[in-house]
Amino acid sequence: MMNNTSDTDNRRIPDRALLATVFVTGACVLIIELMGTRVLAPYFGSGIYTWSALIAVTLAALALGYSFGGRLADRLPRADILYNLCLAAGLWTLSTPMLARPLLPMMIQLSDIRTGVLLSSVLLYFPNLFLLGAIGPFVIRLMTRDREAVGSVSGRVFSVSTIGSLLGALGTGFILIPNYGVMAIFAFCGSLLLAVAILGNFRPKFIGYAAILAAIIVSLTLITGKRPVSDSSLEILEQTPSFYGQLQVIRKQDQKLLLVDGIGQNYVYDNDSYSTAYINFIAALPEIRQPAASPEQNALVIGLGAGQLPMMLQKLGLYVEAVEIDPKVGAIAKKQFDFDLPADRIHYTDGRVFLLRNDASYEYIVIDAFSAEQIAWHLVTLEALTEAKARLSNGGMLVINITSTTTGKDIAAVHNTLKSAFSDVRSFSLEQHNGLASIVLLASSMPILLNHDRASLSASQLEDVKLFVAGEVTDLQSDILLTDDYNPISHQRGQVQLLWREVMIDYLGDDNLGWLLL
Description:
- Residues 1-8 have low confidence and may be disordered.
- The chain has 518 residues and is an alpha/beta fold.
- It folds into two domains: 15-225, Growth Hormone, Chain: A (Up-down Bundle), CATH 1.20.1250; 275-508, Rossmann fold (3-Layer(aba) Sandwich).
- Helix content is 54%, strand content 17%.
């Protein structure tokens, strides 16, 4: 009878080395999956569609990879084949940022964001995840010496691979993403796989062509990454990776923009630092609300951005506290936008956690919390709104800013949920571009009466106030109650998400997508 191992590679790879291989590949699977959203987010957002597409592609690629790897290992149980798979996966991972640059601008043109993000995920991540999925079954085949040991060998391989995935997930979320950019992390992951491939198949010929292919990919990535800025009025002043997204400050002529994953969060003009329309309206509320508010008031702003609103409220004499989940946003606000709220009034934590743990009372609570185009959904549920209401003084007002459309189901759902928590709710809007609007929702246990006739506002602020008041939305109808248990707002915002990105590309230049930073 023919020996079962007669067709194997003559070199015997120690079990420890094979287990190290599945440890590294398991870690790389999670690095690629988590980093995949960072590549897709500037074009499609980081919402439910992006995550669903990426998770689905990951599972499909791994499932098919397992099947392929098992069949290949039975036919060609050779170590050099195993490490060729590692090499191919590493080369594809290295090339991902380069491939994404021409691909994603084309995919964002598709009318259905779900189709675009799914196709992008397949084209960018299916190949290397498929190859990495084939590694586990191959290693099991190489480690199995007799049939009775299959169960224990499989258990060891799956265990080590899963531990690698666990550490890969923790390392990516806690270390890599907050401190390094997309290209650096993909370069690290790809280089790790190349190192495993070379160490596992340490032959001069293999090392030679692996090095040549890697050098070609790296060179092309660097060359294609150095694209000239076609619009001389656009300048990237600062960019930094954060746990919550890619942060950028961009100058466009006389205006500075704070962007998160390619979406504008704040727009500040050089000659008037606090001129954004919705901020002018919200900041005017203490003066235009009737009856007139007392001069000594407390305000809480959840969502810092460039710090425009807290500074403007403080300028009006309010005692202002700000809550921001991302410390790097606070650092950029201070450095780039002259934000100077005292340090003891800035709280770097989740807005809802702050509401639960804090017992202070406020006349105004403003929720203006976005991550790129994604609203902080857990801050607009009935439970969250009830928690905010408990922090309001008698007759205090909750203010929520949402960028959407006046006919959006998301706005109607938030309005309906507010009515379940407050006795009076009013919504005001100001259309910006292509149907996209700033919508400010006001809620209080007392009647909300506004009168700007005698308010001491600047001419520009008064004009913004008049536009918002004239744009009151009175026909919002929804049966949906947003709760911690059921909250479809991310799904409801699907088309708004696409529209917002189209507006950003149109505003900053569709012939110059370098600001999206891949």
